[in-house]
Design brief:
The protein is an alpha+beta fold. The chain is about 35% helix and about 30% strand. The chain is built from eight helices and 16 strands. The protein has a six-stranded mixed sheet, sandwiched between helices. Strands 1-2-3-4-5 form a five-stranded antiparallel sheet, with no helix packed on it. Helix 2 packs antiparallel against helix 3 and helix 6 runs antiparallel to helix 7. The radius of gyration is 26 Å and the shape is flat.
Length: about 325
């Protein structure tokens, strides 16, 4: 089996049972570790042949255990069993480390890394935008054949299982007062966090201007670095200035949602009827949770691709739910 085959998500679909193997990259890591260890042993033998006998008894057990654990980790799989209505994650294919009944699960969504890669995760109802459980390997683009097959063959079947065993819907609270919007003559305007934008704009502008003066921090660091220290902050200041004057409005009279900014970056205007669904993208930076982006997905009749409008990046699950409910209430 090639490295590409090991790295991609594998799955099997049986009667009322889905088994997913998303951790094939552990096999690759274990092989790399083995090669590095062999290379290290050869280097020690060539450079210090007499110390090989004292170093190896100490390092060999440690490396063998690490390699064995990583290799066994490649057999970790997730089982969706529609006979007992549970999802189980089995570490090394044996140890059940996560077990959730279907009525505890919210659904499958995307977790996107700051580097651009993403994978699919299953989230519980009590933490819909938390860490979740990875059920696929990482992809660089959504047109990857393995990603396309996974989204068309596996995810709909998982959601079918969950829908068959979902609890009775809870009646939503009637919204009479909006937290995220202001209303004027039937037009709902999203409240921007302008104070944060003003602070970043002033800070970047001040740094850029400071670097133009004789007291610049980068004056003796070389011309290229000095130019970068001037252009970078000023460019970010323009970005924050554009975000400061960006507006998102929902016009209930014309039934149009519009996002516009002075620089026309990300501008979009769509009828309510073209709205398809919300897309939540969980962002991480260096493995740390950085917030969840709330996107609205639109599809024009006859268009090949959908269009996305980002509304806000939110940290708290309850705040995300509230924002979504307010938008739904406005668009009714």
């Amino acid at each position: 089996m090639s490295i590409k085959e090991l790295m991609k998500t594998r799955w099997s679909v049986e009667h009322d049972r889905i088994t997913i193997y998303p951790y094939g990259w552990y096999f690759v890591v274990s092989v790399i570790m083995a090669v590095l260890f062999i290379g290290f042993a050869v280097a020690v033998y060539v450079l210090e042949p007499y110390s090989l006998g004292t170093v190896m008894p100490i390092l060999l057990p440690f490396f063998l255990v690490m390699i064995a654990l990583f290799f066994a980790g490649g057999y970790t799989h997730i089982v969706f069993d529609n006979n007992n209505f549970t999802m189980t994650k089995r570490w090394m294919g044996i140890v059940p480390v996560v077990t959730k009944s279907f009525d505890q699960l919210h659904g499958v969504n995307v977790m996107r890394q700051s580097t651009g890669g993403f994978n699919f995760r299953i989230y519980p109802r009590n933490d819909k935008f938390g860490k979740g459980v990875a059920i696929s390997s990482y992809y660089n683009k959504d047109t990857h054949p393995n990603c396309v097959a996974f989204t068309t063959e596996v995810i709909p079947l998982i959601h079918k299982y969950l829908d068959m065993n979902s609890p009775l819907p809870v009646q939503q609270e009637i919204i009479t007062e909006y937290i995220y919007f202001t209303e004027s003559n039937g037009v709902y305007t999203y409240k921007q966090r302008r104070l944060t934008m003003v602070i970043f704009f002033v800070a970047c502008l001040a740094l850029g201007i400071h670097e133009l003066t004789p007291y610049a921090f980068s004056l003796d660091k070389g011309d290229a670095f000095h130019i970068a220290m001037i252009a970078g902050p000023l460019l970010f200041a323009l970005v924050f200035l554009n975000a400061l004057f960006m507006t998102i409005t929902f016009d209930t009279k014309t039934r149009m949602v519009e996002k516009k900014s002075p620089a026309r970056i990300g501008n979009l205007k769509m009828p309510f009827e073209y709205f398809q669904n919300f897309h939540m993208i969980r962002k991480t930076t260096n493995g740390a949770y950085a917030g969840t982006e709330v996107h609205m997905i639109f599809h024009e009749p006859g268009a090949k691709n959908t269009k996305s409008m980002m509304i806000r990046q939110v940290q708290n699950t309850r705040k995300i739910d509230r924002l979504v409910e307010e938008i739904k209430n406005i668009m009714r």
